[in-house]
Amino acid sequence: MKKEKLNRIDKMLELPKEVYSNMPKISIMGFDEMLIENFKGILEYEEFYIKISTYIGIININGYNLNLENMTNDDIKVTGQIESFEFERLTD
Question: Does the domain formed by 20-89 have CATH 2.60.40.2000?
Answer without folding.
Answer: yes
